[in-house]
Amino acid sequence: MKTLILYYSRSGHTAKIAQELADALEGDIEEIIDTKNRSGIIGWLRSGRDAMNKSLTLLKDPVNDPTEYDLIVIGTPNWAGHVSTPTRTYMHQNQAKFKEIAFFCTAGGDNFTGPFNEMKELNGKSPVATLGVRGKEIKDGIYESNLQEFIKALPM
Ligand SMILES: Cc1cc2nc3c(=O)[nH]c(=O)nc-3n(C[C@H](O)[C@H](O)[C@H](O)COP(=O)(O)O)c2cc1C
What we know:
It is a single chain. The protein is α/β, with parallel strands linked by helices. The chain has helices spanning 13-25, 40-52, 85-94, 113-123, 135-140, 144-153, and strands at residues 3-7, 28-31, 71-79, 82-83, 100-107, 130-134. The protein has 6 helices and 6 strands; from the N terminus they run E-H-E-H-E-E-H-E-H-E-H-H. Strands 1, 2, 3, 4, 5 and 6 form a 6-stranded mixed beta sheet that branches. The termini are close together. The structure holds flavin mononucleotide.
């Protein structure tokens, strides 16, 4: 099964999970790149506001064509209880090109419901699996069993 792991990451957590998934699934990996500056406190505030407003942004052109993949695994950080703006934009622009899809999300806390519900809505159908990873689990390196469970649920 040809798999593409797509992710947006502002500060590296979601990128780390994405890389581990790409290694385990032997899939292609692509970062969703925003043209908007989201660094520092101004960037943080702007990101929270954009997420709450469910705004879209201008992304750099994607590298891979999602129609060439059987499975898309797409990741986001939780921004104020929402899917991050760059992941929202990618899904909004490309959802018609997805076959099977799975979601992953990283968060400071343990609430993944908001982002996953929005991703489901953007996608128009349910994911085959979801993985939520908390910041503390990433810091302590204790998410391996959840990651393996997620991988087992994928149609490989
Ligand atoms: C603008 C903004 C809003 C956030 N809001 C939440 C939140 O509501 N709940 C939560 O658990 N974490 C929240 N976080 C923390 C991130 O979801 C968490 O640190 C995530 O792992 C960051 O992923 P990244 O390093 O891939 O960017 C927020 C982070 C940012 C930048």
